[in-house]
Design goal:
BirA Bifunctional Protein, domain 2, 3-stranded antiparallel sheet, binds 3,4-dihydroxyphenylalanine, 342 residues, 11 helices, alpha+beta, single chain
Amino acid sequence: MKEKLLKLKEEISNKLLEVKDLAGLKDLEEKYFNRKSEFNIILKGIKDLSDDLKKDIGQLANSIKQELTLSLQEAKNSIEKQRVSKEKFDPSLPAQKQETGHLHPLTQIRNEIEDLFHSMGFAVIDGPELESDYHNFTALNFAPHHPAREMQDTFFVDLKNKDEQYDMIMRTHTSPVQIRAMKKYGAPLRAIVPGRCFRNEATDARHEHTFYQLEGIVIDKGINFSHLKGVLETVGKKLYGPNTKLRMRPKYYPFVEPGSNGEYTCFLCSGKGCRVCKYTGWLEILGCGMIHPDVLKNGGIDPKKYSGFAFGFGFDRLVMLKYNIDDTRLFNSGDLRFLKQF
Ligand code: DAH
């Protein structure tokens, strides 16, 4: 048995020297080390030997097994090394092109506008997209069942707010963050809220169920309508050029009094009238007004001491107009042919 083992060891060692690739090595392993191999049959037979022999042969068999396992591993390593060094490396080949993406057009303009507002001392804040009916409507002066709620076709969610037991909805505008900000920071306050909103729209080129708004809120002592106008004029000039004019016309929003819309002179025809502005010379982009005293109260701010204004830009529309994009659904489409243009 001893001779057999030694012979087998020599045989395997010789074969190992001849092996040239991993496949050959695998064959060898299979042949000499699988369960039914000669080597394993010898190992199994050891238990039937006399005690003396068992010890002797057992030790020998073990050391041979260890040695062979080591040689096998070494052979594997050296084959692998050879393979790698044989692989040709041609430094004159052109490098593989690294495709880098870029920011979404909505994000690009959002960053620009955030910078502008930062420079005017506004904080940029955030609020939840899944919002309570209370913050989205009631606290903003939309009484329950008031017809003004119909202006915003809402996604209702089958869920109650844990602490307050209010119905939950997908926020239809960024205005609920006005209340949250007042409660959290108090007055004076100067902030913008860029964010995603949701409405149950039948989608078409001008309507999407998921869209963006940019809310603004300023509260301090002695804030009046001319402050609002000044800020909106500055934003218009930044967005559409220094000759941009602002027009404000009364409009109803329950949370402001007086309420107004905001229109800028058309950047394409400079107010002369064209297809983009539907031959009016003006582009309606925002809603705004002086914050209603009841809304200030709901935010925990004393309307006798403080006043404020708020505004809300239709953010997608603003970017559509800036880049002459004719279908709002493109923003969420993920279509690279569209996105690569920016
Ligand atoms: N939240 C309004 C909407 O979605 C827009 C708006 C109007 C926001 C007037 C305001 C505001 O802050 O003062 O239609």
